[in-house]
Amino acid sequence: MRNIETTVSFDMRAPEWGAATSELYRAAIEMAAFADRIGVDTISVMEHHGSDDGYLPQPFTLAGGMAAVTKRARLLIGAVVLPLHDPVLVAEQIAVTDLMSNGRLKVTFGAGYVASEFAMFGKSLSDRAKLMDSGIDTILRALRGEKFQTDGRPVYVRPLPLQKPEDIILVGGGVKASAGRAARFGVGFLPMLPGLVEVYLEECRKRGREPGLYFQPMLTPMTIHLCEDPDRGWAAIERHAIHVITEYANWAAQEGDASNSPFKALTDPATLRQVGLFAAWTPDDLLAKVPEMEDRSAFVLQPLMGGLPPEEGWKSLELLEQTMPKLKAAIAALD
């Protein structure tokens, strides 16, 4: 049985020439409620800090607001840049948000790669692996209900989440070490690049553990904008897609040669549509792609990408609503 899902994602970028930040946040809550109502599987929010365009810095806050207006969809936060944060505080945020969502929360932890973020939080990039390991260990123990000491301080988190902590947490990343970390801690895995799921599954087998929740990375396209005419649809999103890709490429450049970002050096707007990371598809285009989708992959829409005016994003979501019965039928027909 092939598991193919739909995801609606929000990073809340708001360049000054795009829609107003306040308008985007109101729309995001309304869109989350709509996505849940039409049967979208996952609503995801992301995290970065100190970005000129206001990239979402507090994903648990937004996820809590979305939890209040949804009933069924999984809420995925990720990737939380764990080395920047106090893991005890993160554990408390997880517990409360999971309770607010009635056990629908998933949280992906990433090691981070943006040097300016680490500087802002007084952390060193060279410590990120150590901070990931100690942070995940602390969070898992705290959310299991343990009272313990770590680094000389007492830890005791209440309330506890509805779900087992291992069922909430995933590790994200683009290197084999991230797959090994997920298997070692007995949590889920959300890779950035192809080939790493196989590493994760093998590491789980070696440790005699059942794998947690995992998905294949969706690189082409990473984001779909549904429209009635692809040329007009692309014209509507082009500036916003260019902004998103360029900003990610700039962050990747901070990491230099060590970067494995799919956006690395992708700064030429003329090639963006051909590369296909962002796509303007008709509903028929979407349905035609179903047989090509890998098991545990997802169709991803970002209805507010790069400050896209909400009225344009709503057009995409309304087309998804119209297409959803045929989409679910097409996926079921693959079984």
TrEMBL record:
The keyword RNA-binding does not apply. InterPro entries: Bact_Lucif_Oxidored, Luciferase-like_dom, Luciferase-like_sf. Its EC number is 1.14.14.3. GO terms for molecular function: alkanal monooxygenase (FMN-linked) activity. One of its GO terms (cellular component) is cytosol. SUPFAM superfamilies: Bacterial luciferase-like (SSF51679). The keyword Coiled coil does not apply. Residues 16-245 form the Luciferase-like domain. It holds the Pfam family Bac_luciferase. Keywords: Monooxygenase, Oxidoreductase. PANTHER family: BLR5498 PROTEIN, LUCIFERASE-LIKE MONOOXYGENASE. This is Alkanal monooxygenase alpha chain. It comes from Mycobacterium basiliense. The lineage of its organism: Bacteria, Bacillati, Actinomycetota, Actinomycetes, Mycobacteriales.
